[in-house]
Structure formats: structure tokens, C-alpha cells
Amino acid sequence: MPEQSGKVQTVLGLIEPDQLGRTMTHEHLTMTFECSHVPPAPGDEGLAAASIAMKHLHWLQQNPYSHHENLLLNQEIEAVKEELLCYRKAGGGSIVENTTTGITRNLPVLRQLAKETGVHIIAGAGYYVDVTHSDETRKMTVEKLTDIIVNEVLHGADGTDIRCGVIGEIGTSWPITESEKKVLRATAHAQTQLGCPVIIHPGRNKAAPGEAIRILQEAGGDISKTVMSHLDRSIFDPRELLEFAKMGSYLEYDLFGTEVLNYQFNLDVDMLSDSQRVQTLAFLIREGYEDRILVAHDIHTKHRLTKYGGHGFSHILKNIVPKMLSRGITQNQVDKILIENPKQWLTFK
Ligand SMILES: CC(=O)NCCS(=O)(=O)O
Description:
The chain is an alpha/beta fold. It contains 12 helices and 10 strands. The strands form 2 sheets. An 8-stranded parallel β-sheet has the order 3-4-5-6-7-8-9-10. It has a two-stranded antiparallel ribbon with strand order 1-2. It starts with 7 loop residues before the first strand and ends with a helix. Keywords: Hydrolase, Metal-binding.
């Protein structure tokens, strides 16, 4: 039985699950997102090239992926540190940092931030979406990928002794590519060996979450210990959502704070607003899924930091929790979503 059994693994070492406190299960503290750059609309080239400024803020909020500098969250370590101190003051305890290979994971920075702020940080093992896979990664067998992921959890990643406490976010596109399928199978095999938590980034299609779970399941993964991210831009029809929920993964609404007219990555999608996210949580609770819900902001660009007029890492604690309570979600249910469910997920078997 690995030493992690019954514990949570942070970048500073193992902790007791009760030490976690309120936990955002899907954030990024340092990463790059150039792989997802969207060319600006004709006529917007000037805005896309300008420095970030108040007078451009609305444009940036609506077109975050068309501004190159905005995609470099790794340049904001000091601002992120300030945000984490505010998060602690607002009652936050822990953050799962989902940056995996392909989007510039930086484990020494995560360790430094954990030391300087007192926030428990849990790092992610594995690989992001296919466009970020190296030729070397693409050629690897499932066995080799499994060994690498297991090593990142048991011994440390990226040449450091800093150990990851979850596998993911494991990136998938739509349709899921062959290289991504291998990584999903390796994830399931590593999870079987380690009894660890897993988190998946689905492709941008309503069929994507179900397909990723099926691949994991067929490879022996433990779906009850797996989180499906980004449901707030993936499945909108209530019946389809309940069909997906029956598959047994955690259901994560992790784009709180994102309010956009057009979802740049898929113009067919009408992204949920925060009010609609809260309504969806209330619906899932009524349907009996309160033990399966997780929430976060998935901050992955500069403009969502308070330094740039964004909502920051404390938005859920400061604004969404009161809204949840005002819409009939009980304090006990809020505590389940913020404390108990993350604890169950993050504790190694
Ligand atoms: C970093 C990351 O993968 N964020 C998700 C953005 S998306 O719009 O939900 O795909």
C-alpha cells in the first residue's frame, strides 16, 4: 500500500484530509495558454496587440484568447501570491492546481506559493491536450506513459522531488485523438496502481465527457474517484446532464466568474452565467447528486485576476456562496461542495 493511502498529497508533502478546508478543485496559478490562441476578428488586431488597459477591459473579457499577453499567467507570480493571501482571508484552505505537461507546469513556483501563503496546493500529473503533445509523447506506449505518470505522483515531476497529488487535468479534444486515448488509458492504469484522484478536461462537444469516461472505464479506471471538468460549457440539456451524471464521476462546474456573450472556442455554445451555474447546482442537488458536485473558477488567463479587473480566486467564497444560500441551497450542502466532496475525492484510497 503506498504511503499516500488515506492522505492528501500536496506540493509540501502529505497532509491529513481534514486539513484541506474549503477547496477549489480546478485552478491554475502559473501556466501558459498559447496553444489555444484564437486569431482576433478582422479590425480587432490593434486591440489584440495593445497592452492590457482599463479602456480595453470589456473587449479583453469577451475575447480573452485573442490577446497573446493575456495567455501568459506565468508572468503573474506576485499577483497570484497576493490573491492567495486574500483567498485565505476569505476562508479558503486549498487549491488543486491543474497545470499538466504541455501548458508549462512549474512545480518549484507552486511550492514557493504554498510556503509563502499557507494555502495547501495539490499539483497535477500527466498531459494536456493533443496539440501540446511532443513527438516523443506521441510515440510512447501506454506502459511508458503509465510509468511517467506514476513516477510524477510517487517521486516527483519535471526533474524535481515535488510530487503530484492528482492525475490531471488530462486534456482531451473532440474527437478524442489516438495520442489522447493512450494518455487516458495510462491515467486509468496509474490510478489503479495508486488509488489516486483523477481529473479530466473534456473536448468541446456535449458527447465528449461521456466518451472520456467510457475510455477510462474500459481501461479499469475508478470513475467514482474521477472528476469531469468544465460541465458549464459542455452539457446543457437537463436530461443529458442526468444521463451523464449516472456514469458516476464528480460533476465539476469550474468556470465561475466567466460571463461571456460568445464562447470563443465554440460559437455554437451559450456559456452559462454564474446565476445559471447556481441554478444548475440546485437542480443537481434536487436530483440527488449533492455528494458529486465540485466548483472552481479555472483561472488560466491574466484578465481574471483582480489585478486586471477580474473576479479573482475568492469569487466563489465571497459572492457565489451567498447566492447559493439565497437560492435554497443549504449551508450543509455548501459545505459538502466546498469541503467534504473535495476531501473524499483528494484522499488516496
Ligand atoms: C486551462 C483550460 O483548459 N481551461 C479550460 C478552458 S475551456 O474553455 O473550458 O476549454
